[in-house]
Input
Amino acid sequence: MRKKFISMALTAMLLTSSLMSNADIARGADVTNDNQVDSQVQEDLDRDLAATAGYVMNRVYDRISAENYTAGYNDYIQAMLALKAGAENDGVVTILKEKLREEGNSVLNPASSDKASLSIAAAILFLNETGENPADFDGKDLVSKLYDTYMGESDSNPYTFQYVNAAALQCVEDMDKLTDILNKIKTEVESIYADGENGTGIDYWGVSVDNNANVLSAVSSWYGPDVEISEKVEAAMDWNLSQRDATGAVVSWGEPNSSSTAAGLRMSSE
Output
């Protein structure tokens, strides 16, 4: 029963804590303006979101407070999302900031070449959520580092794009550099988009709802102004919907998958 609750609550968290949303939206404060959302459903959603955010934050603390802990970008992503959803933990914030201050830390100097910009973007998004200036954090300009790293990458993991996109839109003030980043993301996303018998959307080891949600979210700023991108996104969302069973859950590997369902909900909400 506990596992089912956590799965359902994580779905709610992913739905309402998108990378691009501000704190009020992340907490579901103004999801609609036409009073169509049932107040009890909203109350349940807010309660589950708060419980899940606290659960995730506690798990992050347990992990990073252990001896011989080595920082990883996932800790910064999870902490950032939990902070967005209203969870607070000064211990998590302090430890993760201290790790970023360490010389040669693995988050700002990742060994994996295909996720280097992802790791730096995760740190920037986390720092933003804590009120720090990532362009001047402990004497380091992480915003410039993100630009140089991403623009120099030739083999980025596609899941990188969503985080680079979010960090760039939040922090890159030079419009030429911001345009460079967004144009590169758009080009790379388009290069792995497929529409055929194996599915419609992002083909990264196959087309999947998870791929569509995580990768196409990176071109959200193009949705609307760019007709071609808009058509691709809408076609992918239609395909996502076709992957559901009678209950509405996304079927992955032959059975309902809560993580994939959450990803599909997140894409629709964005």
Notes: The mean pLDDT is 86. Residues 14 and 204 are 21 Å apart (CA to CA). The chain is about 60% helix and 5% strand.
